[in-house]
Amino acid sequence: MRAAPLTADAQRLVIPDARIPSGDAFSVLLGGRRIWTVRAPERDDDGALSLAWPPSLAERLTGRARLAVEHAGREVAAATVAFDDDPSEFVLTEPGTGIPQVVNKWGRIARSFEGRDAVLIEQVLDEAERLIQVLHSTLGIDLFVTGGTLLGPVRNGRILPHDDDADLAYLSRHTNPSDVALESFGIERTLAAHGYETVRHSSGHLQLLFPGGTVTDRFYLDIFTYFECDGWFYGTFHAREPAETVTIHPLKPLAVNGRMLPGPAEPAELLAAIYGPSWEVPDPTFAFVTPPAAFRRYYWWLNHFDVDRENWEDHHRAEIEAGPGRAPSGLAVAAAGSLPASSTVLDLGCGLGTDARYLADHGHRVLAVDYSRPALAWAKEHLAHDGGVSFERANLTMARHALHLRKRCAELDTTVHVHANHLFNALSPLGWDTTLMLIKHLLAAPGSTAFLEVGVAGAEGSASWVEYQPVDWRRFQEQLHRYSLSVEEQDDDGAGAATSRRVLVRRERA
What we know:
Layout: E1 7-8, E2 12-15, E3 25-30, E4 33-39, E5 49-52, H1 55-58, E6 64-71, E7 74-82, E8 102-103, E9 109-110, H2 118-139, E10 144-145, H3 147-156, E11 166-171, H4 177-193, E12 197-202, E13 205-211, E14 217-229, E15 232-235, E16 239-242, E17 252-256, E18 259-263, H5 267-275, H6 292-302, H7 309-322, H8 330-338, E19 344-348, H9 354-361, E20 365-370, H10 373-383, E21 389-393, H11 399-411, E22 416-421, H12 429-442, E23 450-455, H13 473-482, E24 485-492, E25 500-507
């Protein structure tokens, strides 16, 4: 049967007559490559299937593309579409590397193992085996495969083709969430001593990164903390089941792509806890829906320190590929002219470092920090060589990182001023607290100032960002006052209602 036509723009995909039953899974192909699998919604009044693109994909759609829809193993709709006036062909690839990407189960744009070099998968498993040995020999922690790295091998002995990482876990020896968190931080310190680069998602989720270039990673490994508390089994970040229904120990070998890795004693029990009772049936549209009782506990016990980092890293990779602009922000220009000569500045949320470089070129000494690894790698390579500015990684949602910055600034043995351009638009509530506490401490020095700009209206970020949103001006002032800070000067952009406010903040004196 001949494929039906389809239409699409940068917001929606419309399939007029594909005859896909509501609730059935179908896949969208870009240039013949599967990039997104989703379930069909209810039909419109005119009988068409219409659905919005995932926000992470919608904000990238430009140019022209050949789209097709597959259902039940056959092509049911296809067309060449134009997302805008750009005549170029749209490709969904990773900026900087050209590696093909897909929409993953989180709705994010990510790599997948599907179609990748088999050598890469073997490297992932090599590193997993090495990591298992390191933690067993140093801390007596016994890792085992979980998540997708358990699901695929239990089904057919191989890693899922659409996965994009390897998942490992351990069962904590502790039952108090505070002790569980302390154990995880101890594991992180041990891994750092063995040369691993880590990112902490929460107090129960570590990610080990294996760089593949200046701004990219070859792959990563996840380490999830599982624990029992008050008769319940918790599998970070999602599962919460009666403890007697999930048996982890003793671990037993499991065949994974031809090699034996440790697995849980009862794989089916763990998979049911993670994916639900229908885990045996492949579902390419699966998405985690964390029960509220589990979500509350994970958030308050283990928190979440990695909000939007991956969005920012994707954003910075795209900027780098396009060629970063070198124009400083208005905030940096104002700060450079207002600061005393040869001042020391802490640039919070420096991004690609343009403002930091501008301040350094105007005679100031700058310590610039961000949690986006590609941005820092690029800035170190392109902007740090002339001196005057250094770039360091810091996650401002983590109190220990803020404390480290306090120590770093104290070591400079001088008054430290603060520069932060739209930082508070990007921070979670936890990040607001740790950052304002840091600023309060730094502004205790006589003569110190904080140059801040916040977006208060308009389109900050996009639909795919969790926290990058306009700041409520009243709330911002209340939070400043809570930390004994106040606005001394204010400069609104443009005429009429302001969309951003540039402010000079000082510490209130008793």
